[in-house]
Structures are given as structure tokens and as C-alpha cells.
Amino acid sequence: MTTEVAVDSRLVLTDEQVREIAATYGTPVYVIDEGHLRRRVGAFKTAFEKSHPKTELTYASKANSTLAVLRIVYSEGCLIDVASEGELRAALAAGVPAKKTHLHGNAKTAQEIKAAFDLEVAQIVVDNFEEVDMIAATDGKCPDLMLRLAPGVDPKTNAKISTGQADTKFGFNIADGSAEQALLKALLLGLPVIGVHCHVGSQLVEPDAQIGGGQALAGFVREMKQKHGYVTQVINVGGGLAIRYTDDTEAIDPQKYCDELTAGIRKGLEGTGLDPVLVQEPGRWIIGESCVTIYSVNNVKTVPTKTGRRRYVSVDGGMSDNPRPALYGSPYPVRWVSGDGRGAKPDAVVRVAGKHCESDTLFDDKALPANVRKGDYLQVLCTGAYNAAMASNYNRYSRPVSVLIREDGTHTMVQRAETWEEQFAREIVPEDLS
Ligand SMILES: Cc1ncc(COP(=O)(O)O)c(C=O)c1O
Q1: Which residues of 168-200 are buried (b: 16+ CB within 10 A; e: fewer)?
Q2: With contact defined as beta carbons under 8 Å apart, do 321 and 293 qualify?
Q3: Closest to 198 measured CA to CA, from 171, 180, 162
Q4: How far apart are CA 117 and CA 207, in angstroms?
């Protein structure tokens, strides 16, 4: 099996690969390409390191915490950002030492904080005043702390994944003085605050907002140095870079982006004597384009509409393996693969529907061959981020298998589908329930 056809930056499997993987593992199936993923991490890391002398790249594991993915990105030199105890335990299960993880979350529980202390994570990213109190009250050696700040920049992206503006649940607002108060409170309590963090939003096609976020953090730490003599050791500007969910989205050049980002921060720090380590924590940009999902076409229907007729192509997956179209109206690139090797042109416009008991429209107005039929496959690109991670058992479907295409071209299953027993194992029916 050839590992990859790189028609552009995104992983695209050949038709033969699609048929072989589908025949071997069934569908729907997530397919991750190891070499592609390693190259993505390498490209970002190299660009970031070239742009500034002191950097650290962290992978935001919420995007995809499949253990094999965590193992690969860690082995390529990434630290791991975890947003819950579950993600922390996934990192540990993948062989990542806690010392290489950062714990995030806007509503951490005392138990999560205790676990972070006991397991000895490298950093906790503190979100709110209650958390400062909880941390101060926790026994044991406190990990290094970062303060999450809301820099007040509005990212141009879907409102559901915008986080850097002032009206947000995340972090301490800089403009209203909360960030300064939080810093002083934590320092007064003797807590080891080593720096500041922000994450302004996700799927940012225009990276101006992250650059603005970095500059706002630089401005804040400059002021804290001047007013309080506080010396920041780390500035973390989060993740958020967009990937190519549509064919006409331009690929972001990591070098250009890192150069602009780090230059903006350096400018903001000029004359302060501050020389912090700069950190970024992309998730989607690292894993998103390294994975495709293969579906089988189950049926095709043409129905009357108010203005004409519509063709529905129903596949054997849907919002349980990819909730993003339902959540955010997210587009995806879709490629048709004939089940029997016949050729055809994309000469019809169809709606691709999922199998769930809702409209479950996966992809609207897609150009597919008019004679698409049961037994054909659809290959959906760019499904590495927030697909497996957000998958559910809606309608009691098992979450799909994940397959890894190795660098030598072989393939192997890295996550199997759930068994019926596993689905029911958590449930308790009271004996006397009639
Ligand atoms: C704190 C933080 N860092 C990093 C990320 C990763 O964002 P992305 O996957 O868009 O790079 C997120 C996403 O929600 C986040 O909340």
C-alpha cells in the first residue's frame, strides 16, 4: 500500500487504499497517516524554533487523544495540553510523563487539581479566582502555574469556538483589572506563577487574533514588571490555527505565522529585560489534516422539494462520529470512491446524510457522480480534529475503529469499536424494577 497521495497539504488516500481499508476494518473508519502527522508536527516545530530562540510546542490533546496519536506527537517533541483528568490519564496511558503535561480547564474540580498535584503535572493553567483558592488549599507540591487571560480580541470564527473576546467564560479579563488582581492574589499566597496564557479561538483562517492575543499578553507582562517587578518566564498564546476544510481555504504557512507572532511579542517586550519562553498549543493544525474518515454509501434517494428535486446519499455514519457539521455547520472536503472500480464524473449535486434519527446532514451541496450507489465509499478529508474526540454512542452506535497507516505503508488498528458489552457495562438496572 502506498502511504499517501499528497495532492496538497491534506491527507488523501488513493481509491485502492480506501477500498482496502474498508474491506479490512469495515466502515465508518477513521484513518490516520503516521508519516503525515509526524511531518505536520515537524513543520510547526521547525518553524516555531526558527522564529524565536526559546520556544516550546504543546499539542492540545482535546483535538484527538487517541493514544497512538499522543504517542506520536510526544515522540516528535511536543508537550501535551490536557483539559481534564481524563485527558491527563490518556496522556499517561500513552506513555507521556505527567511532567510533560499542562492541565487546562475553565471549571476544574478540586479532584482534578488534586490529581494534578499528586501526578505531578508540569503546569496548571489557572482560570478563575475560586481556582486560585482551591490550589492554595491543596496539599502537596504545587505545580508551576500559568494564568489564563482574556485578552479582549475578537477572533473571526464561529461564535461557539471564539474565546479571546472580553465576553467569555475563559480566564481573567485584562482590561477590567481581574488579571492583575489574580496575579497579585496568587503571588501573595506564595503560589508559583511562572507566566501567562491565552487562547483566542479556533479554526482561525486569519491569524491576526492570535497575534493580537500575543501582543496583549506582552503588554500585560510589561505592565506587571513596571508596576510590581513581576518577571514572567513563560508566555503561551494557545492554539487556534485553521486547516483546509474547504478546497479554496488557503493553507497557513507556519513559518510566516510564527515569525509574525513572535516578532509581535518581542516588540511588546522591548526594553523590559523580559525574555520568556514562548509556547503555542495547536491541536487542529497538528492532527486535523492527517486523518480521513471512510463511509459506505447505504442508499440513494431523490425526493421532491418546493423548487425541484433533491438527491440524498445516506452513509453509515453521521453525527455520532462527526458532530461538527451539526454543531457548527462545518464544511468538509468529500471525495467519492467507487466500490467496484468504475469511473464517473461528479455531475450531480447531492446532500450527504448520516444515519441518525435527526436530519443529520453531514455535507450539503456536494458534487458527486449522478450514479453514486450503495456499495460506493465517501472519503472525507480533514477529520483528525474534534471528530474521534467528540464522538458519541447516539442511537447506540459504537464509536468507529481508528486505523494507523504506518510509515512503511502497512496499516494497523489503533482503536477498535466498542462491543455491546462495553456499551452496557456502566448501567445498573435495579433488581426490583418491573
Ligand atoms: C486552551 C486551548 N488551547 C489550545 C486549543 C487548541 O485549539 P486548536 O485545536 O484550534 O488549535 C484549545 C481549543 O479549544 C484551547 O481551548
Answers
A1: bebbbbbeeebbbebbeebeeeebebbbbbbbb
A2: yes
A3: 171
A4: 34
Q: What is the pLDDT of residues 124-168, one digit of tens each?
A: 999 999 999 999 999 999 999 999 999 988 776 666 666 667 788
Give the domains, in start order, of the chain with CATH numbers: 15-31+289-424 (2.40.37.10), 104-282 (3.20.20.10)
Q: Could you report the per-residue pLDDT of 202-245, keeping only the tens digit for each?
A: 898 888 888 999 999 999 999 999 999 999 999 999 999 999 99
**DSSP code per residue over 374-415:** TT-EEEE-S-SSSSGGG---GGGPPPPEEEEE-TTS-EEEEE
Mutate-to-test residue for ligand 1 from 162, 165, 197, 281, highest number of ligand atoms within 8 A of CB: 281
Rg of the Cα trace of the chain?
A: 23
Q: Could you tell me which of 59, 15, 22 has the C-alpha nearest to residue 401?
A: 22
Angstrom distance (rounded) from CA 15 to CA 1: 11
Do the Cβ atoms of 74 and 53 come closer than 8 Å? no
Among 298, 366, 310, smallest CA distance to 333 is for 366
Ligand 1, residues at Cβ distance < 6 Å: 60, 62-63, 81, 104, 199, 202, 238-241, 281-285, 385
Pocket test of ligand 1: the residue of 196, 199, 235 to mutate, having most ligand atoms within 8 Å of its CB, is 199
Q: State whether the Cα torsion 120-126-127-133 is positive or negative.
A: positive
